[in-house]
UniProtKB/TrEMBL annotation:
Compartments, record wording: Membrane
Every Tyrosine specific protein phosphatases domain range: 534-609
Main location: membrane
UniProt keyword annotations, A-Z: Glycoprotein, Hydrolase, Membrane, Protein phosphatase, Repeat, Signal, Transmembrane, Transmembrane helix
Record protein name field: protein-tyrosine-phosphatase
Length: 660
């Protein structure tokens, strides 16, 4: 109550609506006071700066970014909020940055921060009057292990000796998004299937007790990229015999295949590995042994006695046998039968004999094939310009049977691809066996298909197996044409079955077009055999139902182009011989013949036995089940058959083929 005509009301809140009511009273206090009717009016206080944010804290913290949430109570807004601003900078640094968020947002992310660093974050609301009071949050950014590089990012071979391998790797193999890379080390394995993901790795000394070396760490972690973004490192350079602790870069075994990977650390306990490199084989040790005087004397005496005995026996033999021309066979060919036919009527008994005692006789017979063809030259494959085109350093095509591409101008090595002609049932050059194309050689692969006039490709590997690349995805992913060099490839259709996929592609070069079929067996493990083996029988028969004997050569590949490819070809030859009424089978001779054309055909004993098992199943009728039904036909492909630029369907192509 006041007698003043003006009255100031204090301690009101900014930007609030208030109602004021005035009542006038008259008269003396000693008499009855009279009251007027109340008169009311509404007023709004003016805006002010906002109050403090009452809730400001992170809800997700990553090495290089942080997400905050916040709350500004309505009672603290003090006006119309225009935006929120987060100001941030490194602790003890004068340099700051800021990021604005809209008035209705209650969370937001700050990116581009440095892992492992401590930042100060401050948030303020703003009205038209200005910014409110700051609320502060202090946060140290975490450091995590580097992200896993892609499967193509692996160390590469530079050179090798009988005890060392020099590799090359690059700084950009690992992203630093989770923290700066502080050190690197090298991991080597002869048997990469063993677990190698732990922080504590065996050393070179630790693996000496193993016949096949599991993964081991070569050196203490170090940082090699102070002056360059590319570094070469040589494995096997140290003498470790007297060293009893720590890691040691000891010598490798000669003639042995290794794989190498790089490990990168962001902190001493946070690391990530690349995938393993492609196999790298050390050279054979050809260092001559320093012999004593007595050893040559003993050898000389032994040879002399042997020569005397040999002449006596030869003299006796000449008197008791008719003379014959000199034998001109090589030592290997004269010492080994190259053909061992088995009557089909006795095949089951023969198989049981061979498989007795844990497949002992299979092991003996397969061992006899070990060196077949190995004396032949592969000089073109080992030229410096051609080495990068080989997926594996120990799988090189022989010169005499290699497929030769048409040379491109005067480019050295332009006629080279890792592929050989291999005989089949219908022709000595029925098959072209090649490695799974590399990304860098897939243009050459399609050039080979075109220049050989091949109408079928048999693929016996998946592109990625156990996390490792076995073959490039060298064909289109969809129905859009893709150019591989000057050859375009377009998918016509695709039919999927439980264990394989059959596709048809149009190959085009200039104005000429052809159809080529692609048979992709998808359930055959590397170095192993299909389970059950009869699956392979059904696949070979499904292949032969679509590909006539005169449609050759047929391109066959797995990963290396030796093990699974050789097994497929051997079974195809056997099944065709049965269809032509053969009463014997010569599995040993088939493999022997293939190995004279391409190294290591039918690579493992298990694959060799698989051929026997498949034939036994055929003879005993175990494979006589209905052919697999198609489980998926890509209608998207089919619907576009007649909509392609060429306006030619698959059926049109096959009609043209018959007219040629």
């Amino acid at each position: 109550m006041t007698q003043e005509e003006k009255f100031v009301v204090t301690e009101l809140k900014p930007h609030r609506n208030y109602t004021f009511t005035v009542i006038v009273r008259s008269g003396q206090e000693s008499t009855v006071l009279r009251r007027s009717l109340p008169v009311s009016s509404e007023f709004q206080t003016m805006e002010s700066v906002p109050g403090m944010v009452s809730h400001f804290q992170p809800i997700d913290v990553q090495p290089s970014e942080i997400q905050f949430e916040w709350t500004l109570l309505a009672s603290e807004q003090n006006g119309v909020i225009r935006k929120f601003t987060i100001t941030f900078g490194l602790e003890n640094s004068m340099h700051t940055q800021s990021k604005d968020f809209r008035a209705w947002e209650t969370s937001g992310t700050i990116r581009g921060l440095q892992p492992g660093k401590t930042y100060i974050f401050k948030i303020q609301g703003e009205t038209k009057i200005g910014y409110g009071r700051e609320v502060t949050w202090k946060q140290k950014m975490p450091i995590l292990a580097p992200p896993k590089p892609s499967s193509q990012v692996v160390p590469t071979e530079v050179c090798r000796t009988s005890t060392t391998i020099q590799i090359r790797f690059r700084k950009n193999y690992f992203s630093e998004v989770n923290g700066p890379i502080t050190s690197y080390t090298v991991v080597v394995a002869e048997d990469e299937s063993k677990n190698a993901s732990g922080l504590e790795m065996p050393s070179w000394r630790d693996v000496q007790a193993y016949r096949v070396w599991p993964p081991y760490q070569v050196i203490e972690p170090y940082y090699p990229f102070k002056n360059s973004s590319v570094v070469d490192f040589t494995i096997g350079t140290e003498e470790c015999e007297g060293k009893t602790s720590g890691y040691c870069n000891g010598a490798l075994k000669d003639g042995t295949t290794y794989r190498v990977k790089i490990r990168a650390f962001t902190t001493p306990d946070k690391f990530t590995d690349t995938y393993y490199s492609f196999p790298i084989q050390t050279d054979r040790d050809t260092t001559p042994l320093v012999l004593g005087i007595t050893i040559p004397a003993i050898i000389f005496a032994t040879l002399f006695i042997g020569l005397v005995v040999y002449k006596k026996r030869r003299h006796i033999k000449r008197r008791t046998t008719d003379p014959r021309p000199a034998d001109t066979l090589s030592i290997q060919d004269s010492a080994m039968e190259t053909s061992r036919p088995i009557p089909l009527a006795n095949f089951a008994d023969h198989y049981r004999i061979m498989s007795a005692d844990s497949d002992f006789r299979f092991s003996e017979e397969f061992e006899e094939l070990k060196m077949v063809g190995r004396e032949q030259s592969n000089s073109f494959a080992d030229l410096p310009c051609n080495r990068p085109k080989n997926r594996f350093t120990n799988i090189l095509p022989y010169d005499h049977s290699r497929f030769k591409l048409q040379p491109v101008d005067d480019e050295e090595g332009s006629d080279y691809i890792n592929a050989n002609y291999v005989p089949g049932w219908n022709s000595p050059r029925e098959f072209i066996v090649t490695q799974g194309p590399l990304h860098s050689t897939r243009d050459d692969f399609w050039r080979m298909c075109w220049e050989s006039n091949s109408r079928a490709i048999v693929m016996l590997t998946r592109c990625i197996e156990k996390g490792r690349e076995k073959c490039d995805h060298y064909w289109p992913y969809d129905t859009m044409p893709v150019y591989y060099g000057d050859i375009s490839v377009t998918t016509l259709n695709e039919s999927r079955y439980p264990d394989w996929t059959v596709s048809e592609f149009i190959m085009a070069r200039g104005d000429t077009q052809r159809v080529i079929r692609h048979f992709h067996f998808t359930t055959w493990p590397d170095f192993g055999v299909p389970n059950p083996p009869t699956t392979l029988v059904r696949f070979v028969r499904a292949f032969r139902e679509r590909i006539a004997p005169e449609q050759r050569p047929i391109v066959v590949h797995c990963s290396a182009g030796v093990g699974r490819s050789g097994t497929f070809i051997a079974l195809d030859r056997i099944l065709q011989s049965l269809n032509h009424g053969a009463d014997t089978v010569d599995i040993f001779g088939i493999v022997w013949g293939m190995r004279k054309e391409r190294v290591w055909m039918v690579q493992t004993e298990q694959q060799y036995i698989c051929i026997y098992q498949c034939l036994l199943a055929v003879l005993e009728g175990e494979d006589n089940q209905a052919p697999p039904r198609e489980i998926h036909h890509n209608q998207g492909f089919e619907g576009k058959k007649n909509d392609s630029d060429s306006g030619v369907s698959s059926a049109d192509f096959h009609t043209r083929e018959k007219q040629r």
